[in-house]
Amino acid sequence: MAKRNVHFLFLMLSLLGIHLQEINLCNGALNSSCNPVERSALVEFKQGLEDATNRLSSWMGQDCCRWEGVACSNRTGHVIKLDLRNPHPFSDVDYLPYNEWSLGGELNPSLLGLKYLKYLDLSMNYFGGADIPKFMGSFYHLRYLNLSRAGLGGLLPHQFGNLSNLQYLDLYNDLEPYFGAQVREFRIDDAIWISGLSSLRQLNMENVNLQNVSNWLRALNTLPSIEEIHLSSCGIEHVQLSLPHVNFTSLALLDLSYNSIGSSIPTWLFNISGLQYLDLSHNNFTGPIPSLFGNLVSLSDLNLAENYYIKGGIPISLRNLCKLQSLKLWGINISMDLSELNVIFSGCIKISLEILELPDAGLTGQLPEWLGELKRLRVLVLSHNRISGSIPAWLGQLVSLEVLYLNNNQLNGTIPKSVGCLSELVHLGLTSNFLVGEMSEAHFANLTKLKYLSLALNSLALKFERNWLPPFHLEYIVMGSCILGPDFPGWLQKQENMTFLMMANVSIVDDMPDWFWSLISGAHYVDISSNQISGRLPNLVHLNQVSKLDISSNNFSGLLPYFPQGLYVLDVHDNSFSGPILPEIIMGMPNLIFLSLSKNNLIGTIPSSLCHLQGMTTLDLSDNLLSGKLPDCWNSSSELNVLDFSINNISGGIPKSICSPPSLYSLNLNNNNLSGELPLSLKYCQQLVILDVEYNELRGEIPRWMGGSLAFLMTLKLRSNKLVGNIPPNLSLLRYLQVLDLAENEFSGTIPRSFGNFNGMKVVRNTTELPTDLFASTYTQIMPFSTKGNIREYEDLSSLNIIDLSNNNLIGRIPTELMNLSKLFSLDLSGNHLTGEIPENISALQQLESLDLSRNNLSGGIPSSMANMSSLEFLNLSYNNLSGRIPIGGQLLTFSDPLVYIGNLYLCGFPVNRSCKDSETTQTPNRIDDKNENEMIWLYTSFALGFLTGFWIIWGALLLKKNWKICYFRFIDNTYDKVYVWIMLKLPRMSNILLYL
């Protein structure tokens, strides 16, 4: 017994000694500095970094374990964690802190001195697009590696496969430019190294290029512990439909969204029994939604959105997914009546479902009552369908609802007041329906959490008491085309958190209250256009957050104020601003990309400071009172797409630098006093799509180089200048040309037969080869054209095909080749000296709506085929030499006004007041010519007979009557004597006058 006690005492003393030793060791580790080798490695690593904000200022002294971002083991003292993540995440709204706090420079191999490193985070920095160093695969103890958004790129090193202890790997690479610096993509040539990551649990390779990698799925299937796989936006086009053995026993999350997978949904997915989150959205999956989804009983989130090739209904098996909280089926052609979905949503799915998104799914019918049974529903999105009927009152029973989007449907009637019972509602979107009636305080009584309100494009009127205090604080307001006026809505004054305001065309007829400009000081987007708001603008430099300001089409007046420095879009067109455009105002907005000051009363010259806005894409100063010359300071670093100086009093020539911006595609200089010739510098506008210089004083000829150099030109307007010479045939090389307006000049010669080769007027427009799609631009291109006898404005230029050569000195025939232009909309050749006949095949222009051939010398008949021109709405053939019967029937019956044919003396039939003889036709111009020739022969014959008859009557009488003959010759002699005497008496006097002169 004593011996046993001795042994027990010895054991206790030994354990006590070991414990004391561990305490001493730990104290030693805690009290000592970090390993000198590791400290030196960190110092050397820092020396290779660029640290603009001195984030690593604490990296001084001997104890590196106390440095910013460094952590050491409490037991060994070795550095086990290095966290240099940027403390300011990237933000689209304000990227400056992210930019300033980003580390850069090189990743020095000295890091290899940290042999016991378990955690490494270099994310949210910018290392200049360098490759990931291969030495990263040598940190064998590493468990966490985050290189996301670190400004790295290139081929992922195969050495990563050595990191067998790695549990977390984040290689997400945002391909958006980092504050102006382009980022390289990550790519993989062979995924076999992934198999070496045997401990991996979470893998994020979003935006890593896997397009040409076929073994990525097999490699991932070897990882026994993998729980999360993020492969969004990896360029994956193919995926195996089946696997021999599914090894994803621990997989809970799989994200394959934003790829290009074009097969049916793989069957191996339905063997992953523990799958909780599945995102297959934004792909090209085909076929129906498999009923096997009902096997994934652990599924809580299913996203199949934006797979437009998936067709068919929702399988009934989904009713058994009792854990499903989120179902997103955006853009899937379900094509079902909402009432048919009752079978699915009456299952146990209704107990768990919190998010239901079925927009753009072809749904029809009215909002069904089974929706009211989804008591846990937080998000309901049914936008962009064909849902009709009214909004039911029972919608107010969904008391958990936070998001309700019913935009772009066919809902009608009034909005029930029960909507005001949705006390948890944060987002309410009802835009683009047929809702009517008034909304009052009762509709918003309990919406204390509402932040997003979108009611635009309905016939709603918001009528509140003048002193009403709304219970909500909105951040996002979209009210376009509702009725908020005529007074400026006072309830807005309490919305201090507003970041987005769209109140265009809301019937406000009032002065702008002073408090409004303070209210929007935190907003990013402000649009109050198309009202009748008046007043003068104060200086707005305090609106630091505003990036878009649209106050166009109102009654603002006075001088232009100073605007916020951060503006990207400024639109003040169609107001009554006056005074000059001060250079200081322009230079105060260095970030502008869109500026419209058109339709005001601005005077003075155009400031050259506009040339210095390098990011500007659209500049519109049209329809003002500007004078002087155009600035000649444009440069090749400019990003200008649109220049519009039309309808001013600008003089001088077109400046040589006007084509320096390499991306200029629309140049509008019409309705000014520009002089000189079309300059050679226009030859370098090689991306030009629209050139409009009509109504100026330009002289000279159309340059021969225009057809070959301006390859993308679609609209060429030279109307009403003083241009001369022949029209160059090589204009037909402009294969995209759709509008050619050369009217009211002094062109001579014939119409080039090559004009029948305008490809843009023969085929449907294809802009894939154009440098830019003008019709997708944010700039609204509204242009006037002379068609159908009037000046008409057109906004959609995509299908407009016009040739206008009127009021020149053109001669010759109408080329039959013009009839090849099958897509021609308007043809005007009036006011020239054209001869010959109207081409017989003119009916080939089946899409022609306007035809004007008046005031020429055209002859012959009107082709009967014109009756088949079913699109023709305007016709003018007046003041020519047309003859014969006007064809009857078809489209020509719609032209009952005789003025269409006035001035053609030999036309007959309806609607002119000249009846046709039986022999007169319209289709035999040769017979008409024969008739005219016969009439001339009879005319000359009658002249001859009359002359012979008169001659023999006089001389026959003189020969037969002697007394008459004596009297006649005596009269001749007496007359001769009198004339002779008179001349002899006057001749001396006339000689004296001539001598005096």
UniProtKB/TrEMBL annotation:
Entry keywords, A to Z: Cell membrane, Glycoprotein, Leucine-rich repeat, Membrane, Repeat, Signal, Transmembrane, Transmembrane helix
Location of the Leucine-rich repeat-containing N-terminal plant-type domain: 38-73
Organism: Zingiber officinale
Name of this chain's protein: Leucine-rich repeat-containing N-terminal plant-type domain-containing protein
Methyltransferase among keywords: no
Membrane topology: Single-pass type I membrane protein
Pfam families in the cross-refs: LRR_1, LRR_14, LRR_8, LRRNT_2
Phylogenetic placement of the source organism: Eukaryota, Viridiplantae, Streptophyta, Embryophyta, Tracheophyta
Intracellular or extracellular location(s): Cell membrane
